[in-house]
Amino acid sequence: MLRGLWGAAAGMITQQQRQEMLTNNLANVNTPGYKADQAAIRAFPNMLIAAMNTGNVPKGVAPVIGELTTGVYLQERMPNFRQGDLVETQNNTDVALLQGVMPTNEENGQPWALFYTVQNENGEVRYTRNGNFTVDGDGFLTTGDGFYVLGTDGNPLQVNNEWFNVDGDGMITDEAGAAIGQINVVVAEDPMQLVKEGNGLLRFEGDGELPTGVGNAAVNYQLQQGFIERSNVDAAQTMTEMMQAYRTFEANQQVLRAYDESLGKAVNEVGRIG
């Protein structure tokens, strides 16, 4: 019976974690470039239950009772790097990254993913799909949170003012047509090695840094100035999944309550001398 309590409690914890993940997705439905998280839920190994003290059991009767499940757990949260819809903003500092058909990773079947490179407050390289850029007081191109957008040379891009032009390859020119630099676009052949850090930033868990996709014939992309990439969260689907998670949580809660009542009766009533 106690194993049943543990199994029901594990189911409740798993659905609570899933609900928190879905709530976070829904909260970022309007965050440019946000990639929705997906949950991978797995079951603990089953146990094979057999009867004890079966010496007096008639021959031919198997002592094996059957399998006992030991609960489930949320193994990991994985971002879905599917391309979000592009929306025109007519804001000159907005630059959307439109990803074309990409090769697929042979190990996990995930398509390659593309990202901008930025520099966080500690000077470390991070990655993002949020092209809702701005120009700071020193004329540098930054994200909305003030992180420098990096060029193909690895340095922050100084555009001086917001009246710059970006072509499809990311080349930046000023009002007079003079070249300023090129926005770096990197390629993640295994996007599952990227971990969310908050503020729309991703950290690469592999060795070194992600390689640039600029000049890579296998990489297909286009930058579009005056557009942003919307979040790829499907609000209707997320609401449906939240309701499913809530109902599954309630079902486990009822099972837990039933076990608790049975234990209460076992303690208070079984063996009572009337």
Automatic annotation (TrEMBL):
Q: Where is the Flagellar basal body rod protein N-terminal domain?
A: 9-35
**In the UniProt record, which is one GO cellular component term?**
bacterial-type flagellum basal body
Pfam families, A to Z: Flg_bb_rod, Flg_bbr_C, LlgE_F_G_D1
Name where it's found: Bacterial flagellum basal body
Keywords in alphabetical order = Bacterial flagellum, Cell projection, Cilium, Flagellum
Give one GO biological process term.
bacterial-type flagellum-dependent swarming motility
Q: What is this protein called?
A: Flagellar basal-body rod protein
What is the species of this protein?
Halalkalibacterium halodurans (strain ATCC BAA-125 / DSM 18197 / FERM 7344 / JCM 9153 / C-125)
